Amino acid sequence: MDDDDVRRGQPTVHKAYDEWTAILAGDALLTLAFEILARDETHPDALVRAELVTGVARAAGGRGMVKGQMLDLAAEKRGEPSSPTVAHIGELQGLKTGALIACACEAGAILAQAAPGERAALREFGWQLGLAFQIADDLLDAEGDETTVGKATGKDSTAGKATLIGLLGLPMARTLLTETEQKAIAALAPFGTKAAILVEAARFAASRAH
Amino acid sequence: MDDDDVRRGQPTVHKAYDEWTAILAGDALLTLAFEILARDETHPDALVRAELVTGVARAAGGRGMVKGQMLDLAAEKRGEPSSPTVAHIGELQGLKTGALIACACEAGAILAQAAPGERAALREFGWQLGLAFQIADDLLDAEGDETTVGKATGKDSTAGKATLIGLLGLPMARTLLTETEQKAIAALAPFGTKAAILVEAARFAASRAH
């Protein structure tokens, strides 16, 4: 949808094949996600499976990721003359990335039939992880090298796209990234050393751009 | 995907808005279907909800409707020099239309927690209904008027697309439509007069082109 020719160093589907194939591959994979969540092998308790489907559908659909993508494209199309606020960009990025990552983390708690407090903690962790990922992505776009990043860089400023970096400047964006990483790690406190791998994930997401 | 400008007398989404919006609307609606199937209000038994999700996902996804659409586009792109058989077209149309209509009919049986035999009967009804719908659609494309049909007609022959009509000719295609309508109605025999509305549906699907 952003018309990139390259992802992770590989040609994108619409480049390697054509646009129809890319659209159908997207539909097939989106549908496959729900098939996998709902089938017996995923969890013996059907209520767990139904909750997973509902959670992913809410995070990915018209009030989640799709909405974020639509708002983003609409802003790009209008040329967005009015200055968006940090809160506005945060909401948009939350919809585009945060909601789905938060859902993925909460899904672990749903599968383990964890207590509501643990479920909320993992959700909060995922939300902050998503924000950190997105800020790091913007920093890489502003500063990174195409070969290392695996996709075209400098696109946001070329497109005149409103990002946190454009609004805050690089040093404040980097501070925000560190704060977000710390919030993600703090959310994991109730799990102690059991959450070590998730702490690593938060550090990795942020360190991509450090 | 077939680049039509009109559906049911209305401009298509990619015409009224743009292609991005059409893709995102498709993703949002596909996702919404699974959200609705999985949420509590749909059925008190979570196993029923999970079965509905699995059924729709299998019918719509990469081994169902998406596969049918992909095969159809691939054949169109190649110009399909080799003559496809009636069986081949039947399989393609079964994937594109039949699988999802069969699934919709079976879903009624799943929701009602009906016996396996009743579930199979409704599935068979849906499969034949889907075939009838597709044959009628081809007949309308070959013979219909754009204003009555609500979309562009004569597209298949213009595109040199292999259809049952091209292979069988109009009279045999009409005979096949009547036979398929009868098979659909026969599948409903176990339900007696309770299935009157479904008998009407089969008659309606076929009568569009009578």
Total tally of structural domains of chain A: 1
Order of adjacent strands in the largest pleated sheet of chain A: 1-2
Mean pLDDT value of chain A = 89
Going by CATH, the architecture of chain A would be: Orthogonal Bundle
Greatest interface and its residue counts?
A-B, 35 and 35 residues
**Weakly predicted, low-confidence segments of chain A:** none
CATH class of chain A: Mainly Alpha
Give the name of the CATH superfamily of chain A: Farnesyl Diphosphate Synthase
Question: Might you state the CATH topology name of chain A?
Answer: Farnesyl Diphosphate Synthase
Overall description:
The structure is a homodimer of 210-residue chains. Chain A is an all-alpha fold and 210 residues long. Chain A has a single domain, classed as Farnesyl Diphosphate Synthase, CATH 1.10.600.10. Helix content of chain A is 71%, strand content 2%. Chain A contains eleven helices and two strands, in the order ββααααααααααα. The first copy, chain A, has helices at residues 13-16, 19-38, 46-60, 65-78, 86-111, 116-143, 146-149, 155-158, 164-168, 170-187, 196-207; strands at residues 6-7, 10-11. The first copy, chain A, has a two-stranded antiparallel sheet with strand order 1-2. In chain A, helix 6 runs parallel beside helix 11 (196-207) and helix 10 packs antiparallel against helix 11. Chain A starts with 5 loop residues before the first strand and ends with a helix. The mean pLDDT of chain A is 89. Chains A and B meet through helix 2, helix 3 and helix 4 of A and helix 2, helix 3 and helix 4 of B.
